């Protein structure tokens, strides 16, 4: 992913083990100028919400596990944001049972960060782009009743509707942009890259970073890096650990290289317009996000957001090793494996160059308005 203003590279990781040491990996990413958006859930027991019976899995053990990830990764300043859930609501049963619990997890994570983390890190949600829930779910996770902790800081859309050779209109991207035009928080593609037509040619890249979309969408995350049985990979990890660049990788690279310079005047105009609309909303409603409604189409929110059970964990914090940047040796910066393209060696034991003075970020001062990057300015809650 590259965001629509700074083109900072960003990756998404779907699960991590907070009992392991991630310092070297995060230092490598930081040195290369790469940001991380991290999912806090995993398939393990007590590490995710049961979408059908969330009241069973929303418990202290679950919250402690996700808070450990938040605690550990808050100390790396290239952690751009956390996903509180991924496609938890994706059918009628989950839409009846899970929305209020997803909102509770978002609230608990934001309150934990506010009380324990060295800086404010945005918390969002990654949604399946199901037309049945597109507008209602985003609106529900955007709204608030009592506290700003109840509202997402950003919203991710897993979109696979642009397949092969299409256009802004035939793909339905025009409808997507219109549907999120009034959304008050940053929104981006948390997954994209339809593979119903192969090889993928990624022509949606030109649309995503065009004036048609940059007003509303802040870039996107291509799914996915390594080849798996579902055939979405950009690269293939060979049995000996070497990497083969697939045709999708080359096509994606070509599309990024073809991007014209961003229209910064258009972006500035859009930001001024958005700022004006937010100020009008604050004047009219005394807050910048909508008040929650009693009902949302195809969702059951009637039971209300569960009372937090995280107060003790928030008050005392969780015990986990806090992340920190470490110096990288030449050996650590040099791969043991080679990179191939089309059967020919492209790079032998590649070594990456340090492009960012990442060690300057080891001492994180808690300060109002701390910013990761220009992109973080758009994600940071305005309160």
Q: Strand order, main sheet: write it out.
A: 1-2-3-4-5-6-7
Q: What is the chain-wise order of helices and strands?
A: EHEHHEHHEHEHEHEEEHHHEEH
Structural class: alpha/beta
What does the main sheet amount to? 7 strands, parallel
Return Rg in Å: 21 Å
Percent strand: 5-15%
State the helicity in percent bands.
25-40%
How many strands? Answer: 11
* Poorly predicted parts: 2-6, 362-383
What is the straight-line distance between the termini? Answer: 27 Å
Shape: globular
Total of helices? 12
Task: Let me know the average pLDDT.
Answer: 90
Features:
383 residues, alpha/beta, seven-stranded parallel sheet, four-stranded mixed sheet, 11 strands, 31% helix, disordered N terminus, Glucanosyltransferase, signal, transferase
Summarize the structure.
The protein is an alpha/beta fold and 383 residues long.
Describe the SSE topology:
Elements: E1 10-13, H1 23-31, E2 35-39, H2 54-57, H3 60-73, E3 79-86, H4 92-97, H5 99-116, E4 123-128, H6 134-142, E5 154-159, H7 173-179, E6 187-192, H8 204-208, E7 217-222, E8 235-237, E9 243-245, H9 247-257, H10 264-285, H11 311-316, E10 339-341, E11 344-347, H12 374-379
Parallel strand pairs: 1-2, 2-3, 3-4, 4-5, 5-6, 6-7, 9-10
Antiparallel strand pairs: 8-9, 10-11
GO biological process, one term: fungal-type cell wall organization
Family: Belongs to the glycosyl hydrolase 72 family.
Enzyme class: transferase
Description:
The chain is of the alpha/beta class. The protein has helices spanning 23-31, 54-57, 60-73, 92-97, 99-116, 134-142, 173-179, 204-208, 247-257, 264-285, 311-316, 374-379; strands spanning 10-13, 35-39, 79-86, 123-128, 154-159, 187-192, 217-222, 235-237, 243-245, 339-341, 344-347. Strands 1-2-3-4-5-6-7 form a seven-stranded parallel sheet. Strands 8-9-10-11 form a four-stranded mixed sheet. Helix 7 (173-179) links the parallel strand 5 and strand 6. Helix 3 crosses helix 5. The longest helix is centred in the C-terminal third of the chain and has 22 residues, at 264-285. Mean pLDDT is 90; it is low at 2-6 and 362-383.
């Amino acid at each position: 992913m590259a965001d629509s203003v700074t083109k900072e590279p960003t990756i998404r990781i779907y699960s991590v083990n907070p009992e392991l040491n991630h310092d070297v990996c995060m230092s490598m990413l930081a040195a290369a100028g790469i940001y991380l958006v991290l999912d806090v859930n995993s398939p393990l027991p007590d590490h995710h919400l049961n979408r059908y019976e969330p009241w069973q899995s929303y418990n202290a053990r679950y919250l402690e596990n996700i808070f450990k990830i938040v605690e550990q990764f808050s100390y790396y300043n290239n952690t751009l944001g956390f996903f509180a859930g991924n496609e938890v609501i994706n059918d009628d049963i989950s839409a009846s049972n899970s929305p209020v619990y997803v909102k509770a997890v978002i609230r608990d994570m934001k309150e934990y960060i506010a009380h324990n983390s060295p800086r404010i890190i945005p918390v969002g949600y990654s949604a399946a782009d199901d037309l049945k829930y597109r507008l209602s779910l985003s609106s529900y996770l955007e709204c608030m009743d009592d506290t700003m902790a109840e509202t997402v800081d950003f919203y991710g859309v897993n979109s696979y509707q642009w397949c092969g050779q299409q256009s802004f209109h035939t793909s339905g991207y025009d409808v997507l942009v219109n549907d999120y035009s009034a959304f008050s928080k940053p929104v981006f593609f948390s997954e994209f890259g339809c593979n119903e037509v192969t090889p993928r040619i990624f022509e949606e890249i030109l649309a995503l970073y065009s004036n048609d979309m940059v007003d509303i969408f802040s870039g996107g995350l291509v799914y996915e890096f390594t080849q798996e049985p579902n055939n979405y990979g950009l690269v293939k990890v060979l049995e000996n650990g070497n990497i083969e660049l697939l045709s999708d990788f080359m096509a994606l690279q070509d599309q990024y290289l073809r991007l014209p310079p961003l229209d910064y005047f258009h972006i500035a105009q859009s930001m001024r317009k958005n700022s004006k609309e937010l100020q009008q909303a604050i004047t009219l409603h005394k807050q910048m996000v909508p008040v929650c409604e009693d009902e949302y189409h195809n969702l059951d929110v009637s039971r209300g957001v569960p009372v937090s059970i995280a107060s003790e964990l928030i008050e005392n914090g969780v015990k986990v090793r806090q992340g920190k940047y470490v110096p990288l040796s030449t050996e650590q910066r040099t791969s043991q494996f080679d990179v191939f393209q089309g059967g020919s060696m492209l790079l032998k034991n590649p070594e990456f160059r340090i492009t960012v003075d990442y060690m300057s970020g080891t001492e994180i001062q808690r300060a109002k308005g701390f910013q990761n990057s220009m992109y973080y300015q758009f994600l940071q809650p305005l309160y």
